[in-house]
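Late entry, written up from scratch paper. The run itself happened at the end of the previous shift, but nothing got recorded in the book at the time, so transcribing now.
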Amino acid sequence: MNADAVRERAGSLPREPGVYQFREDGTTLYVGKAVDLRSRVRSYADPRSARIRRMVDRADGIEIAVTDTETQALLLEANLIKRHQPRYNVRLKDDKSYPMVQLTAHDAPRIEITRDPDESATVFGPYTSKVQVETVVKALRETYGVRGCSDHKYAGRERPCLDYEMGLCTAPCTREIDLESYAQDVTAVERFLEGETGILTDPLRREMEAAAEEQNFERAANLRDRLETVAAFHGEGGEAVQSTGDERGVDVLGVAIEGEDATVARLRAEHGKLIDRDRHTLEAPGSAGVDADGEADGVSAVLAAFIVQYYAERELPDALLLPERHGDEEVAAWLEAEGVSVRVPGAGREAKLVELALKNARRNVGRRDECGMLADALEIDSARRIEGFDVSHAQGKSAVGSDVTFVDGSAEKSDYRRKKLTDQNDDYDNMRALLEWRASRAVEDRDDRPDPDLLLIDGGEGQLEAARDALEAVGWDVPAVALAKAEERVVTPRRTFSWPSDAPHLHLLQRVRDEAHRFAVQYHQTIRDEVKTVLDDVQGVGPETRKRLLGRFGSVENVREASLEDLRSVEGIGEKTAETIKSRL
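Output as recorded:
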């Protein structure tokens, strides 16, 4: 686009907050936020950096989305950057985004919280707190009975589901409510989400007062808490969180930039003690100069982008310690409204923490791209998001499966899942059941995580074949490979790789495999130890002794078959206790 085309497009835009996208052949090149869309887009007629000038020259169109508030524009910008990964934005390489609420385009629309809304849906948000959104959506469903089930569950029902019995849905699926009346309820939900708070707070207040009159004080208190959340949803009664002066949680950020790659190291301190540290990679094109918004590139731009994108699904700390100001007025206003203290310490203990974060960032910047190397070696599009699977049992007893997630080479523990399996002494069938469970959840849209780029199976050809059988049966098309422990061979459907032991992409797979194994064993031990056995009735055998017996022999059946000498070899078991165990079993 030339300068005249940009000015012409800008002249038709509203003077309202929102988000704009520069597009080329349907691809998003750049996403920006604006307090005044017309003024901000017009500024691109005279770009302030060579990088942005190249972007404008490439673009063939500009799309906008108007928002109600500047904060919504800030959060929507973060979501769009995560979704489209535009090459001219600073972008964090994870897949978190801020929640939105959508009403789907069906005869009987469903309400749901999503981070990737349907194009045909009516969408509201984004919002800063998923917990708050969940509370409000539940209140809306209890008040207006709007369904929350998937289309798979909705179709072909002969009787209402449990949501109807619980008062969460009026069951349009079986026409317990006619579609015309249901549409009126959906309209009421839309009115609330558009800002008409009283349409939900009024019935909640009446219900709370009725519960109090009936002396049902526990329910009245729950309704009071819900009413406060709903009232604050659109800003009513939602004054900025007041700082108590007691900063329990403090995040310390350090930034290092090399070329177009940046690393942000985050240290976490609680009650003055350092409890956690992690590092995150960002793509930071044009890391010097001034960007199109008139803001400094480099460390300040990376900080502003990281803060908004990283805290998409994480609780904000009480305070942020930064190596320099991020320089983004909208981000500053948002943090202030959320009660977050932002400081750039010059000396003392806080300055030392910032220096430590900087050292951690410099250790990571410019590291070899394990995920890219792995994708190239396996000839797949990407290996940024990997899920690892393993099963664990004791001769078929207490069988469980693990599903761990790694994003950009780092464990994403909030996306770990585990599954209790049917007891059977067959690793192949166990793996098949585990993958069928995961694939079914994905295909039926019952898993809130993004689809992975790659599935890693702990095992060899047999386990991989069982996993692929499950994927094919369910119809989930995701690449899968296996990593055998004995020779560290990578098994794919077409061939087997024996990569050098120092290959970074092999190390990545090993980390995923080992974590899946650890998580499965841990869950198996928890399940096994929770099982009440006949050993509990043996005098002299307490929980710790039982745990040692099962740890040594694996099952009660093996304890029964053990000799007296073997039993006595277990710590804490004497001759008399061993004889008692044999006699009782």
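Residues 255 and 264 are 5 Å apart (CA to CA).
(Scratch paper discarded after transcription.)
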